[in-house]
Description:
This protein is mainly alpha-helical. It contains nine helices and three strands.
Amino acid sequence: MAAKESLKQKAYHAIKEKIITCEYAPDAMLNEEALREELHVSRTPIRDALSRLEQEGLISILPKKGVVVSGLSIHDINLIFEVRLLYEPYALLHYGSNMKDEVIYKYFDAFSTPVQNFSKDEYFSLDDTFHVNIVETIQNPYLLKTYDWIHNQNLRFRVMTGQLVDYRLEKTTEEHLKIVTACLKHDWELAAKEMEAHLLASKNATFDLVLRNKNTENQKEK
């Protein structure tokens, strides 16, 4: 039983990782038989994994067609930011006091460090854990479950637009420092406002980047 469960977990985590890192690109079709051969597992673990991933919104299982990786359109990006704007300022305003001072100081030191000291992957990881740590202060499992779904989509999107870190690195760090400084003062209302401003700036920069990429693609096609 344990071995069977571990194979299900192996298949689930392997496929999920490839979707989030965009090795399996948005809108790509996945072949069940090919997944079996790639992961060296039987049909049952693959089907179990695909069922879980469909529930998380990462794939769609289409009758008589197959499995397709969920797309990420401009509309999807807008929805992701809508949820983040609802959750992250709310987390700081209502649950920020659950954050330990040593955690806040850790991020203050990190975001005070020159951005040139980080690789792109290191900065991605730092940025991601910062936002996740804030949301995890929420003591409501229903809210956390919904945010986890959005978080997976956000990770995928950020891989697709890796240029965003280069494009907004300095500004993002400044915005993070403003949030952290408000947290150190335990001024949760200010921290929530700074988070909202940061997310709105990120959203605007993201749309600018996506539109520039689309224009570049259109010009290449011509």
